[in-house]
Amino acid sequence: MDINSKAQRELHNFWQERIKTFGNSFEVVGWTKESQQKRFAALFQLGKLDGMSLLDVGCGRGDLLSYFLKNNINIDYTGYDLNPEMIEFCRELHPEYTTNFKVSNILEEKVVQSFDYVSCIGVLNQVTTPDSPEFATGFIKQLFAIAGKAVAVSITSLHAPYKTPDTFYFDPAEMLQRVSSITTCLRLDHSYLQNDFTLFLYK
Fold first, then answer.
1. Comparing C-alpha atoms, which of 162, 194, 160, 188 is closest to residue 174?
2. Distance in angstroms between the alpha carbons of the first and the last residue of the chain
3. By CB distance 3.0 to 4.6 Å, which of 29, 64, 117, 142 could disulfide with 54?
């Protein structure tokens, strides 16, 4: 089984178990509301968001759209998720934005729509194979190809003060080196949480 297939199977199994346990509740995402808000706030380093388009890869329950609406950010938002149940949750929570959410696997489907920005928050954390850094780098390269302006990818950090067995903890220095093969216009922010950092890649 290749690295992409292993990663997709692991992600599918992890989220199916969480959906079975928590259903359409905030707890399904596995974060505190405070830490989620800090991850979302870091996205403003992408650039000017107002009036732009953004693809949220691994959108979960669509909480990022909720964040933009609450903060009066006028952004053309689209959310993709591998999991049909998650997309149904999005549509239940955002009935006026049902067409903004789509079941999609960018590893297997070509993205034909253009977006200014692409975000991917926490999606890679549950790919816990030894090949996770390699898979993450390839995945980020695909995100970068979709984006017109920039990409933001949030992942868990090796420097987290506590760790759980169902999460992969990435070495920030290693990932910065890896993604520099994609572009040298980049930034790493590890300032908002001890256990998380965001990679920003710019065109």
1. 188
2. 33
3. 117
**Backbone dihedral angles phi then psi of residue 21, each to the nearest 5 degrees:** -80, -45
Alpha-carbon gap, residue 73 to 22, rounded angstroms: 29
Contact between 20 and 140 (Cβ < 8 Å): no
Find the DSSP H helices in 25-131.
33-42, 63-70, 84-93
- Residue 82 DSSP code: S
Helix (H) or strand (E) holding 160: none
Distances (CA, A) of 105 to 61, 102, 119, 199: 16, 10, 15, 21
CB 200 within 8 A of CB 167: no
